[in-house]
Structure formats: structure tokens, C-alpha cells
Design a protein that fits this description.
The complex is a heterodimer. Chain A is mostly helical. Chain A has a single domain, classed as ABC transporter involved in vitamin B12 uptake, BtuC, CATH 1.10.3470. Chain A has 14 helices and no strands. In chain A, helix 1 runs antiparallel to helix 2, helix 2 runs parallel beside helix 7 and helix 11 crosses helix 13. Chain A is globular. By secondary structure, chain B is mainly alpha-helical. Chain B has one domain. Chain B contains eleven helices and two strands. In chain B, strand 1 and strand 2 form a beta hairpin. Chain B is globular. Classes of the chains: A mainly alpha, B mainly alpha. Chains A and B meet through helix 4, helix 5, helix 11 and helix 13 of A and helix 3, helix 4, helix 9 and helix 11 of B.
């Protein structure tokens, strides 16, 4: 390794981190605060999915089960036990992790497209259960009137609530970042790149995948629970397959395997959806579907991945960003495009 | 109870047609087509629009709609699916997912979410006495068409030269190519054919199920579970699982109504635990 990229590394990472923090803190000043909260929640959801998709090589198409499942658990805890909302959200995340255990156990033995189909099917099962279990979940009406309880503080102002809820999101992001950069995360990457070799080196591949799946579900649950508190309700939409698809789109749009790219994707998609619905355009699927098709056809590296590639090319060193696996030259591997 | 079993078989007829289309496409292209449900919906809507706007009868629609959708599918393969084929198969899954969203919401924008009525064709409006019970003639017709199409596809695959090429290309594409057979020529038509099957299921659904833009989205995920149970890539397994799941869900509905929608997924979980490749799948197909 030459000296230039090392300097670049020390220089860029804190700058980017600081920039991210500034954006996170400034967001409710720039846009409508409830939308800012939505973006924060979806950004964490996207990072949680990327943990699995970009760093373990598993495309889950059923993450709505964990986001929405946690939304319901969080809502139920808040409604019936009157706990402070962070406790309810953590309860929701724990519920999501618990749910991920059997789902993951059955799914991680499958690969690629098979894994996507099976997770999608299990999420649909959760959707049907939530839909049918009316006494508890409210069926088609969802859970209404979820309170924002925190030691009797008045959190009804969405601007204030954003700053009260943000630490949970940042903690989630820190968790995801820690996981990716831990020895455990390195093993996940090796499993993504070459499962057979990881197995041969003595790593129990399926157990690692299962743990990654559960951790990803827990972080998704953290995001989904906070989302439910922020909106004051949990709805069937939260567990529906379009939600699973939407978060996948955010990650692909932002850049698979970049962790932060998903946040950019989330920001764009949530803002766009908000803009469309204020403009009275209800068939959002036409627009989101088109973005999906466009990104898959011609923009597979995503925004962050493309930016990284441009930076790398300029500095003339393919390994200028070794801290972000899954993109850059060394991860644009065997096949063209980012490997899923 | 026998009547309920018959209901199950009719429900299974739709599963089987859709699963068959998915399996044929997956076998030849390695693509899992998420938009399959959207094409089923388009089949039903096409039938409705043909009657509502142009007075075209059900019988003509039964031929025209699958043909049109098959053609559309063929063009789709040539323009887009082919471009993504060299990449990870998940990209085509994502592509068809986006396509499904577009198609569903385009129809929703035009027709709203409420269901459109479609009358049963006059010839099949009555009931048939099946000995033990009488049954609506239309449902018997649906079952008959579905079984006939599945058998026909089976015969074509096992007894004709085209079927032989498709099977060979599915099992060993490189070797088939090495033997001088132009596999690429058959890819687009096979994709179109799979879409046509989804369209056919949609036409058959129009007179007996609610015709609305959302009819395909939920159904296709259930069909995914059916395909996983039968064994992804196994054409026979998909069809058998289609009818079998239809039957089992209907009977399950009789005894445990609360499980009516979730039973398929519970069965999928059991099958995955016991045979991860599905009932008729091969283990090496999992990779």
C-alpha cells in the first residue's frame, strides 16, 4: 500500500462521518420534520438490509416482516404497557430478532434466488397472520393511537421528537458499522465472496449467516418500531411485500455493500414519495417501479458505489477505499456489475 | 367435503397454471419472474376490457389475450431480460419486481382498485351434475382447461423435438450448444410462452374471481411458496404441488378456517425443514 491512499483514508473518513452527522442533525431544519424522521427510519432499515445483502450476499425480500413485525410489537407495548417509547422500540427490535430466528434458520440454507423467494413467502405469511389476528392487531385498521411516552415529556412536536428519536437511529447505524468492521463482519464478507472457502477454513457458514440475519432483523426492527412511534400507528402496509421491495430498492439505488448508500437511497425515495403524495399522485408504484427498472438496467453500482468508483479512478489507485468492501474494483468481480 | 375438495382442485388449477409458467421460465432462463402475478392480472383485465369496450366474447379472449401477452413477453425478453441474463439472476428478479409495480399501478391508475364485474359465458352459466353433487359448469371447465394445458405441456416437453431441446437446454446449456443447437433462439419464445400461461390463468379467473389491479400481487407470492414446495426447476413438481396445495388448503380451510391463508407457508416451512430442495427438486439445483 502506498502512502497516498493512507493519507486519503485518514482524511476522508472523519470528514464523511462529520458530514453525515451534520446532515442528520440539520435534516428537520431543511425539510418537514415528520418526513425527516421517516428518512432516518428508512435509512437505518436500508443499512440493516445492506448488512445482509451487501456484506453477507443474501438478498432478503421479506424484511417487511421485521420492520412491520416490530412496528406492531412496539405499538402493542406502548398501547398496553405504557412504557417509555425507547423501551417499546427495543422490545419491538427484540421481537423482530426472535421472529428472525426460525425464519432465518429455514432460509439461510438456501442461496440466491431461492433465499429471496423463501424470505418473501415467510413475510407474506406474517402479513396474513397480522391481517387475520384482528383482536390483537386491529386487522385492516391497524393499531391506532400509539402514544409517544417518555417520562411525561411533551413530544407531540415532530421537530422535537426527531431529536429525541435520532439517538436510536444513530445507535443502530453505529451497531451496523461495528458489525461490518468487526472480525465477525470480515467472516461475513468472506462468506459472501467464497462460501466454500469460508467453510473449508472452519467457519460454520450457516450459523454465521443466521446470526447476520438475526442482527439485520433486529436493526430493521429498531427502525420499524421508531417508525410506528413516529406515526402513532402500525398498519398492514408495514408488513406488506411492497415494503420489502422498497427497502431493497433504496439499497440498490444507494449502492449495495456501502452501508451509507442506503441512507442516500432512503432520503431520495422517501422525499420522492412524499412529493408525489402531496401532489395527489397515488400510483407511486409507476415511479418507484421505473426507478427500480432503471437502476437495475443501467445503474447497478448505485449512487454511493458510482461516487466511490469515480473517486478511486481519480486517485488512480484501485484500493483507495479499502475500508468499504463490496464496491470498488476488487468487488466488481467475476461478473459485470455488483455481485449480489 | 367432496365439494370442498373439488373447490380445492379448482383453486389448485390456477396455482398449477401459474407455477407451470414460472417453472418453464426458470428452467430455460434461470429467471424467477416476479411480474408473473402482474401478467395474470393483465390477462383478467384484458378479458374484461375486450368485452367491455369492444364486445369481444370470452371465447375469443381465451385465445387472443394469452397470444397478445405471450408476444409482449417475447419482446420483453429480447429487450430487457436478455441484457441482464449474464449477471446474477437476482438482477432479473429485481427487474421483474419493478415491472410488476409499474404494471399494477398503471392499471390501478386507469381503473381504480374496485373490482370489475365479468359475467360467466352463457354456455357455462349452469351447473353440472357430477353424481355426488352438482357443481357450477364454469368451475368444471376451468379445471378441465388447466389439466389439459398441463398435460399438453408435458407431452410437448417429453415427446417432441422442441421439448427435447428445451429440456436439454435446461439441464446442460453448454453441452446443448456444443451439439450445434441454437439455444438462444428458443429463449424468447419460451419466456413468452410462460407469460402466455399466466395470461391464460388470468382469462380463466375473470368470470369467477374479482378483477382488480391487486389480484396478482398476493397470489404470486403464494405461488412462489407452491413452487418452493414442488421444487424450483421441477416442472412436474410445480404442477403437482399446484393441485396438491389447492386441495390441502381447501380441506384445511374446512377444518381450521383460521389457517386458510397461512397453511401454504406452514407447509413450505415443513418441506424446507425436511427437503430443502422441495418435494421433486434436485439438491444441486439449490446453488
Amino acid at each position: 500500500m502506498t502512502r497516498t491512499p493512507l493519507v486519503g483514508r485518514l482524511g476522508t473518513r472523519p470528514v464523511l462521518l462529520a458530514a453525515g452527522l451534520v446532515i442528520a442533525l440539520a435534516l428537520p431544519w431543511l425539510i418537514y420534520p415528520p418526513v425527516a424522521m421517516d428518512i432516518a427510519c428508512w435509512a437505518l432499515f436500508a443499512a440493516a438490509l445492506d448488512l445482509l445483502l451487501g456484506f453477507t450476499g443474501l438478498l432478503s425480500f421479506g424484511h417487511a416482516a421485521f420492520w412491520g413485525g416490530s412496528a406492531y410489537v412496539t405499538g402493542l407495548i406502548s398501547l398496553h404497557l405504557g412504557m417509555p417509547f425507547p423501551v417499546a422500540v427495543l422490545g419491538g427490535a427484540a421481537g423482530a430478532a426472535l421472529l428472525a430466528l426460525p425464519v432465518g434458520y429455514l432460509s439461510v440454507r438456501l442461496r440466491g434466488i431461492y433465499f429471496a423467494m423463501v424470505t418473501l413467502a415467510f413475510a407474506q405469511m406474517i402479513y396474513f397472520i397480522v391481517n387475520q389476528w384482528r383482536d390483537v392487531t386491529g386487522g385492516e385498521n391497524g393499531l391506532q393511537g400509539v402514544p409517544r411516552e417518555l417520562f411525561g415529556l411533551d413530544l407531540s412536536d415532530p421537530f422535537i421528537f426527531y431529536y429525541v428519536g435520532l439517538p436510536l437511529v444513530l445507535a443502530g447505524f453505529f451497531g451496523a458499522w461495528r458489525i461490518v468492521h468487526s472480525p465477525f463482519g470480515r467472516v461475513l464478507i468472506s462468506i459472501r465472496d467464497n462460501p466454500a472457502r469460508a467453510q473449508a477454513l472452519g467457519y460454520p457458514v450457516e450459523r454465521y449467516k443466521l446470526l447476520a440475519f438475526v442482527l439485520s432483523a433486529a436493526l430493521s426492527g429498531l427502525a420499524g418500531g421508531l417508525f410506528a412511534i413516529s406515526h402513532g400507528f402500525a398498519s398492514l402496509q408495514d408488513v406488506y411485500w411492497t415494503t420489502s421491495g422498497q427497502v431493497v430498492m433504496m439499497v440498490v439505488l444507494g449502492g449495495i455493500g456501502t452501508l451509507w448508500g442506503g441512507a442516500i437511497g432512503a432520503g431520495l425515495v422517501v422525499s420522492l414519495n412524499d412529493y408525489l403524495s402531496t401532489a395527489g399522485f397515488q400510483e407511486v408504484g409507476i415511479v418507484t417501479g421505473s426507478i427500480f427498472v432503471f437502476v437495475v438496467l443501467v445503474f447497478r453500482r448505485g449512487i454511493w458505489g458510482t461516487a466511490q468508483q469515480l473517486l478511486t479512478r481519480r486517485s488512480g489507485n484501485p484500493r483507495a477505499e479499502p475500508s468499504s468492501p463490496g464496491t470498488g474494483e476488487d468487488a466488481a468481480p467475476k461478473r459485470e456489475g455488483v455481485s449480489l | 367435503m367432496l365439494e370442498q375438495a373439488f373447490n380445492g382442485l379448482v383453486g389448485g388449477a390456477f396455482f398449477a397454471l401459474l407455477a407451470l409458467g414460472l417453472a418453464v421460465i426458470f428452467g430455460m432462463l434461470g429467471v424467477v419472474n416476479f411480474a408473473h402475478g402482474a401478467f395474470y392480472m393483465l390477462g383478467a383485465f384484458g378479458t374484461y376490457i375486450l368485452l367491455d369496450s369492444y364486445g369481444v366474447s370470452f371465447w375469443l379472449a381465451l385465445v387472443l389475450v394469452p397470444l397478445a401477452l405471450g408476444l409482449f413477453g417475447t419482446v420483453l425478453e429480447v429487450l430487457f431480460i436478455r441484457r441482464l441474463a449474464p449477471l446474477d439472476p437476482l438482477y432479473n428478479f429485481l427487474f421483474t419486481f419493478g415491472l410488476a409495480l409499474i404494471l399494477q399501478d398503471l392499471v390501478k391508475r386507469q381503473y381504480g382498485v374496485q373490482s370489475q364485474p365479468y359475467p360467466r359465458p352463457d354456455e357455462l352459466s349452469g351447473s353440472i351434475d357430477l353424481g355426488l353433487f352438482t357443481y357450477p359448469a364454469y368451475q368444471v371447465f376451468v379445471l378441465g382447461v388447466s389439466v389439459a394445458v398441463c398435460v399438453l405441456v408435458w407431452v410437448v416437453l417429453t415427446r417432441t423435438r422442441i421439448g427435447m431441446i428445451v429440456r436439454a437446454a435446461t439441464e446442460r446449456p453448454e453441452l446443448t450448444r456444443a451439439l450445434g443447437i441454437d439455444v438462444g433462439r428458443w429463449v424468447a419464445p419460451v419466456f413468452g410462452f410462460g407469460i402466455a400461461l399466466a395470461g391464460l390463468a388470468g382469462v380463466l379467473a375473470a368470470p369467477m374471481r374479482a378483477v382488480n389491479p391487486l389480484m396478482g400481487g398476493d397470489l404470486i407470492i403464494t405461488v412462489f411458496a407452491v413452487v418452493v414446495i414442488g421444487g424450483l426447476g421441477s416442472i412436474f413438481g410445480s404442477v403437482a404441488a399446484g393441485f396438491g396445495i389447492g386441495l390441502v388448503s381447501a380441506l384445511g380451510n374446512l377444518y381450521v378456517p383460521a389457517l386458510s391463508q397461512t397453511l401454504v407457508f406452514i407447509l413450505m416451512a415443513v418441506v424446507l425443514l425436511w427437503r430443502p430442495a422441495g418435494l421433486f427438486g434436485r439438491e444441486d439445483a439449490l446453488v
